[in-house]
Amino acid sequence: MKVRKGFTLVEILIVVVILGILAAIVIPQFSDASTDAKESALRSNLQTIRSQIELYKIHHNDALPGAGGLSFTNALTGQSNVDGDSGTDYGPYLKSMPENPFNDSASVDVDGTVGDDSDGWHFDSSNGDFCADDSNDHAAW
Prior knowledge:
Layout: H1 9-59, H2 72-77, E1 108-110, E2 121-123, E3 130-132
């Protein structure tokens, strides 16, 4: 009598079911880790930008970025004089404006609508508030 080597259909189905159950447990955890990483990056970016806005204010007699002759982004990423115009006295405060990890945009909306997801960031020039401008309720951070 010949001995057959190999797996039966039932054995293969059991292995496939076990792999499916393991995948169903592991995949949602990776999804949560991705969201957590984006939130951590967003908090870090906000902290960095806000601290650089404060440093800009110290160097420019309590004026906010964009109050002089430079736009908000150019004031933080370029060099300026004490009046906020182009110069070589201060800056750059940021190498480049970081992207918002939730909408991959680095543009800054100055005094526009908060949370409309049209830009990466929102800056209120009347009070100096800086926040995320995505539609995921991160504007309150």
